[in-house]
Design a protein that fits this description.
Structural class: alpha+beta
Largest sheet: 4 strands, mixed
Low-confidence stretches: none
Oligomer: single chain
Helix content: 55-70%
Radius of gyration: 20 Å
Distance between the termini: 35 Å
Number of domains: 2
Strand order of the largest sheet: 2-1-3-4
Number of helices: 8
Mean pLDDT: 92
Shape: globular
Order of helices and strands: HHHHHHEHEEEH
Length: 186
């Protein structure tokens, strides 16, 4: 991890902890979940929003005004709107993507869920995803949410990451291991 990413994640974690605690104390976890999902979707869809978050060309006032308008238009909760306004006033909107990731993890933990990042060569069918989730639940002991990524370069098999554990059964990694062993012999 680069130093800048580490700093951003540290800042995001502090803000996320504060937001989560406020939502939990105010019994507004559902509203926070909705806000996080809406913000994630908005950032994925809008290049203009991503630019607003990261561009140093916008003044503090421009960012604050734009974020306030976006929060109002999206009908975000008061807590989320206030945090966005605070981030804008401190010129820290660039941490919003990391903030959302940290909040998603906290919300999943609150629900007793764990997210498994699964990389496959082709998309899993619904039955395959359910079977994988059931198998992982038996191993981890918690409800599993699968976040799937398709990467044809792994050729076949799966790469599964749950927390700090990773299982790589991809054909590409097996071929790389075989190639390494062949080099050792010759």
């Amino acid at each position: 991890m680069s130093e800048t990413a580490g700093i951003s994640t540290g800042i995001a974690t502090r803000y996320a902890t504060a937001v989560f605690d406020l939502a939990k104390d105010g019994k507004a976890i559902k509203a926070l979940e909705s806000d996080v999902a809406s913000l994630e979707a908005a950032m994925a869809e809008s290049a203009d929003l991503r630019t607003l978050l990261t561009s140093p060309l916008y003044s503090r006032e421009q960012q604050s005004g734009a974020i306030a308008a976006i929060a109002k238009k999206m009908k975000l909760s008061d807590t989320t709107s206030n945090v966005l306004a605070l981030l804008a006033s401190k010129r820290r909107l660039f941490v919003l993507p990391q903030l959302i990731v940290v909040l998603q993890d906290m919300l999943a933990e609150e629900r007793g869920e764990v997210t498994a990042e699964v990389t496959t060569a082709k998309a899993l069918t619904k039955a395959q995803a359910e079977k994988l989730a059931k198998t992982l639940k038996a191993q981890v002991g918690k409800s599993i949410t699968i976040k799937e990524t398709v990467d044809e370069s792994i050729i076949g098999g799966l790469i599964v990451k749950v927390g700090s554990k990773m299982i790589d059964t991809s054909i590409a990694s097996k071929l790389n291991a075989l190639q390494s062993k062949m080099k050792e012999v010759g």
